[in-house]
């Protein structure tokens, strides 16, 4: 690793970090003692020491956010959009530096790190346009001289809990929309990637300062599970948007549900590509391999299962084995490499454990997995992407392992393939590779894929921000980023105005005094 991390941090304006940080103010959070260490999975080096927020810091941030909301909510939405536009421009200026930092702290390839920052830029552009399109419907009242319509108001504080695998983009999907809708945000990033979060906070802070926006519109809290629990149980945060494992999502959903708050959950996936007898196999290969090994299999949209028609099964398996043989694993900042490290050694242990479990259930590995050792792999986080032939109902196949383990399953009929694709607890992303229109349409129909995302001739990962992003079943049901996902960040109000000189009641009720 010869990237000069210090010069990148200088470029991003990151000098020191504290646990709690509001836009417009200096670093806060003096009361904390505990620290959090961020190690790069690329070379194992300690790259950041962040202080962990204490309850007093949390209360300070809540107070700042509550007071900022009073000002931010009355700024016209297009003016809020203008500030988000400037944030997008600041990201353009910092794309290389932030993308490199993402790659170094999280371990994804530089191309993917830059791609993640591009998603941030794109969602800002989307949000700017949306700031003039927060439309409500108007209805015809059943009463004479009455007007009825609905409008959308901001909720207040939006709590954003994000995961390590998209350490900056997922925050921005939530923040850009929440901000133009008139909300303020409190962001708790993953404990594994605090440095990229601090860098983002610096970038957005400068934009807010330049626009004289009230302190505390965007807030960052570095903390562990305890901070997450403070947020999920806090009635002062009407919406919690959480990305992460299904286990975490169940805890968040239960806590927020118990106080009748709103939650937007984007949780685990167990995504499959159906490779039909009518597939273009060369194209399918690219989709399958990128989906399975991209981000070292650590996207919630990663391809975990290939459901392959029996007539092309052997041929496609051979293609896969050859392609895996050519994969270059190593420093993700070196653009010659395809696959970087897993996030940490716990993830490596989970990878090994899943391989063991798969073998114990009868899985047959056609490309073996292993942990790489030697000079270039000193962090201990580099693993070999592997492929196993399995049955869909293996316990391990039903489970999302955040690692590059690809399962192969054979099918005979499309109905069977769709049943296999849907036959897991998760429901995020899915795809079919086929040049047959009937097959494609059946896959997309009501009796087809049960996932939030269903693609034809595209892999399962790499969704564009313009579509609503999220999934069904144990994926949590939330939708983020494009389409009308903005509605989750607002409250709907139905307004009826009577401009007659009588007071007729609805439903024909007579009430004379
Ligand atoms: C995630 O892994 O949590 O569709 C998000 C994709 C990316 C986002 C993934 N645009 O693969």
In short:
The chain is α/β, with parallel strands linked by helices and 513 residues long. 37% of the residues lie in helices and 20% in strands. The chain has 2 domains: 223 residues, Aldehyde Dehydrogenase, Chain A, domain 1 (3-Layer(aba) Sandwich); 194 residues, 3-Layer(aba) Sandwich (Aldehyde Dehydrogenase, Chain A, domain 2).
Would you kindly provide a written description of the structure presented here, covering whatever features stand out?
Keywords: NAD, Oxidoreductase. One of its GO terms (molecular function) is aldehyde dehydrogenase (NAD+) activity. It holds the Pfam family Aldedh. InterPro entries: Ald_DH/histidinol_DH (IPR016161), Ald_DH_C (IPR016163), Ald_DH_CS_GLU (IPR029510), Ald_DH_N (IPR016162), Aldehyde_DH_dom (IPR015590), ALDH7A1-like (IPR044638). It is an enzyme of class 1 (oxidoreductase). The model is unreliable at about 25-30 (pLDDT under 50). Strand 10, helix 9 (about 245-260) and strand 11 form a beta-alpha-beta unit. The chain has 2 domains: about 60-265 and about 475-490, Aldehyde Dehydrogenase, Chain A, domain 1 (3-Layer(aba) Sandwich), CATH 3.40.605; about 270-465, Aldehyde Dehydrogenase, Chain A, domain 2. The protein contains 14 helices and 23 strands. The strands form 6 sheets. A 7-stranded mixed sheet has the order 2-1-9-8-7-10-11, with helices on both faces. Strands 14-15-16-13-12-18-19 form a 7-stranded mixed sheet, with helices on both faces. Strands 5-6-23 form a 3-stranded antiparallel sheet, with no helix packed on it. The protein has helices spanning about 5-10, 55-70, 75-95, 95-105, 110-130, 170-180, 195-210, 225-230, 245-260, 280-295, 310-325, 345-360, 415-420, 435-445; strands at about 20, 25-30, 35-40, 45-50, 140, 145-155, 155-160, 185-190, 220, 240-245, 260-265, 270-275, 305-310, 365, 385-390, 405-410, 425, 430-435, 455, 470, 470-475, 480, 490-500. Helix 1 (about 5-10) crosses helix 4. It starts with a helix and ends in a 15-residue tail after the last strand. By secondary structure, it is an alpha/beta fold. Bound molecules: 2-aminohexanedioic acid. 2-aminohexanedioic acid binds near residues 119 and 299. The site of 2-aminohexanedioic acid has 11 residues, from loops.
